[in-house]
Design brief:
The complex is a heterodimer of chains A (about 250) and B (about 425). Chain A has about 250 residues and is an alpha/beta fold. Chain A contains seven helices and twelve strands. In chain A, a hairpin with a 2-residue loop joins strand 1 (about 1-10) and strand 2. The relative contact order of chain A is 0.19. Chain B folds into two domains: about 5-365, no CATH class; about 365-420, no CATH class. Chain B has helices at about 5-15, 25-35, 55, 110-115, 125-135, 365-375, 380-395, 400-420, and strands at about 60, 85-90, 90-95, 105, 140-145, 155-160, 165-170, 170-175, 180-190, 195-205, 210-215, 225-235, 240-245, 250-260, 265-275, 280-290, 295-305, 310-315, 325-335, 340-350, 355-365. In chain B, strands 1, 4, 5, 7, 8, 10, 12, 14, 16, 18 and 20 form an eleven-stranded mixed sheet that branches. Chain B has a ten-stranded mixed sheet with strand order 3-2-6-9-11-13-15-17-19-21, covered by helices on one side. In chain B, a hairpin with a 2-residue loop joins strand 2 (about 85-90) and strand 3 (about 90-95). Chain B is globular, with a radius of gyration of 21 Å.
Amino acid sequence: MLDIQDLHAGVDNKEILKGLSLNIKPGEMHAVMGRNGSGKSTLSNVITGREGYYISKGDVRYKNESIIEWPPEQRALAGLFMSFQYPVVMPGVNNTYFLKSALNAKRKHNGEKELDAAGFLKLIKEKLTELDMDTSYLQRAVNDGFSGGEKKRNEVLQMLTLEPELSILDETDSGLDIDALKIIADGVNKYRSPERSFLVITHYQRLLKYIEPDVVHVLIDGKIVRSGGKELAIELEEKGYGWLES
Amino acid sequence: MNISSFESEFNKIMRRDYFTSHVKPIREQAFNNFLEKGLPNKNWEDWRHTDLKPIKEIDFRLSEISDAPAHELDITEFGLDDVHTIVIYNGHYQENISSVPSGVRLISLADYGDQNAWKIREPNDSPFDLLNTAFMDSGFCLTIDKGIQIESPVRILYISSTEKNIMVSPRMYIDLGESSSITFIEQYEGNCNEYFLNGSLIVELKENSRMSHFRIQNNSVDTVNIGNIHVQQDSASHYTFNQFACGSRLGRLNLLADLNGKGAECFINGLTLTNNIQHIDNHIVTSHNAPFCTSSQYFRSVLQDRSSGVFNGRTIVSEGAEKTDSKQSNKNLLLSKGALMNSNPQLEIYADDVKCSHGSTTGALDQDALFYIRSRGLDIVSAKSLLIRAFVSEMIEPIHHENIKSYIISKFDAWLNENTVQ
């Protein structure tokens, strides 16, 4: 599904990822854990195609195609999705309108019939119930006046609606209380399937108690220094990152 | 247009005998005052950012009888088919296709002058008011008597032809009696190459009256459109102004509102869209001269290419205008590096117990938001459109009148279609 090979990337002439490799197969849930400044954000931004990053070496391949030259929308239409660490507030942009436009862009790309207002409403209401969200959400502007938890729920709602094949969850647990965390984890777990893959990027092990990863990677100074099973996350929680540093 | 061309056109209008003789001395005095002042230049504080070259370099002429339409006009292309319309074509009143709802008295300037023993307000604040008085050649007066509510909006539609170099100077008076109300639309349309419209509108709102005023400025982009609006408000009167401007090469609105009676409300809004080398300047002065009055000035502009704009908003709170509540906000979106906006919200406060706020922001589209939208699968043109639409929606959404709103939305959509590029 996602194959990253010896990736060297950075911003403003500063190399941040220094030879990172990662392979995620269909149906797998991977977690990348690391401290602030280890390169977690750069990794998610480079995969999703944010402008301002350079790649000096290596490749990012999605379904056997190199995507590093693709604009962000092309990656999204191909089935890539990122739940943002800091979802953007967009006053004046209505949630329903935004999500319906995004879904229809994807359906059009896939050669499916676009949904009309009634069809979309039916679909979105099911997803809202799944995430225990109020229907007043539909009238509000994207993330405008949302609490931290509401913003993260909105990201997961978008994921459930757009049905990506590879989802990157970037610090999705930050700003969530335990109840919200459980609801979001439930939503993600139900969404798991043998065709869908996940990359969870996180500082803490907290979220991984509820979303069990198949593989855990430790990112230090732009490189993966250790990979293992879910027990590695527990070990990190107990010992911190220090023991893995050279 | 230099002084001698103004003089020769002035001599021409003074020889037109079909205007009442009462107007001659009024014209003469205004023209002499204009000659003393001259056209504004960039050394004038209120004109610092606006170049009047489009007026100075072209010799405009008065509209002649031959500039009237040869056939009956079809105005359906200008939308708003559910309103009463007064049509002025190249300065010529089109009586056969004009109407006003019952309850509105439509009279000529001559009759209005006679009725008021020629003691009518002649604004002389700016050289353009003086020019308007000197050259007034079209226009009308609308009077709504005490207690009368006019349900159907009244529109004055100014159409310009493809003829070149015409100068039109409409003068309009609107008098609202106590507790009366009206929705009034000024609409400017036409596909002319060079055209200079300099209109003055004088509005008087008596106690407790209400006016909702729209100004749709959709001239061709080679024209000059100067609007001079003077509003006088008595106590508890309510005035709302909404301008939608996307036309003219040079546009300037001078709107002066005087809140003279206790508890008057005055809300002035404007949305401006420009491209190429268009320049639109909004100059707004709200004067609080009585206590317990509320006012706001909300202006937004979207600027593409090398277009430019000015927001010069001033709110003056005079001594004794206690409990004034006033807000000013100007937000501008620059879609290209060559676009330029001059924003200058100002407050002058001479009273103690008042609540006043002002703010201004000018910037490009938010890169984080663009990436966020694109990461959901929408292309860059759709992403930009979505953000521009969101930016203007706060100006368009509050419009109550559905037909006017959908007409403005259709004009905005057309503009957005042409101006959103990768």
